[in-house]
Amino acid sequence: MSKKINYKIFLLIVLILFISVKYNFFINTYGLVKKDYPNRMNSVYGHCSKEGYGFTKFIHDKYKPKYNLTSINGQPQTYANVDGFFYDKKKVTNEKFKILVNYNENISANFKDFKILEKNKNCYFIKKND
C-alpha cells in the first residue's frame, strides 16, 4: 500500500517538474524577483516598440499632464495602446496632445497642424498648433 502511494507522489512530483520546466516557471520567477517593476513593464510592453510603455511613461513623468493623453500606435493590428495604464477618470482627455508610438508614416502629412515636442526613434509626443 505504501509503495503505491509513494509511486503516485513520485509521478505527481515528476508531472509538476515537467510542467514547471515546460512553461519556464523557474526562469520567469527569477525574472520577477530580479527585475524591478519599470524594467519588467519595459521588457513586456517595450520602450519605443511594441505598445510603447516606456516612452509613454517618460512623457508622463517629464510633463506631468493635468489631463489624459491620447496615444496612437502605428501598428494597431499588432499592438494595443497603453492608455489604460495612465488613464485617470478624474481628468479629461485633451486632443491637443498626442503620443505616437511605432509611427513610421510621414508625420508632417498626417499631423500637419501639430508640432513635435519630443522624439525618440519612431515615437513622438506632438502638440496641436494654436
**What does the overall shape look like?**
elongated
Mean pLDDT: 88
Number of helices: 6
**How does the helix and strand content classify structurally?**
alpha+beta
The side-by-side strand order for the widest beta sheet comes to 1-2-4-3
- The number of distinct structural domains comes to 2
- The number of distinct β-strands equals 4
Relative strand content: 15-25%
Order of helices and strands: HHHHEHEHEE
- Which ranges are low-confidence, i.e. pLDDT below 50, for 5 or more consecutive residues? none
Q: Which percent bin holds the helix content?
A: 40-55%
Q: How would you sum up the major sheet?
A: 4 strands, mixed
Radius of gyration: 23 Å
- How far the N terminus sits from the C terminus, by CA atoms, comes to 83 Å
Topology readout:
Blueprint: H1 2-22, H2 25-34, H3 37-45, H4 53-63, E1 68-73, H5 83-86, E2 93-101, H6 107-110, E3 114-120, E4 123-128
Parallel strand pairs: 1-2
Antiparallel strand pairs: 2-4, 3-4
Give a structural overview:
The protein has six helices and four strands, in the order H-H-H-H-E-H-E-H-E-E. The protein has 130 residues and is of the alpha+beta class. It has two domains: 33 residues; 88 residues, no CATH class. The longest helix is centred in the N-terminal third of the chain and has 21 residues.
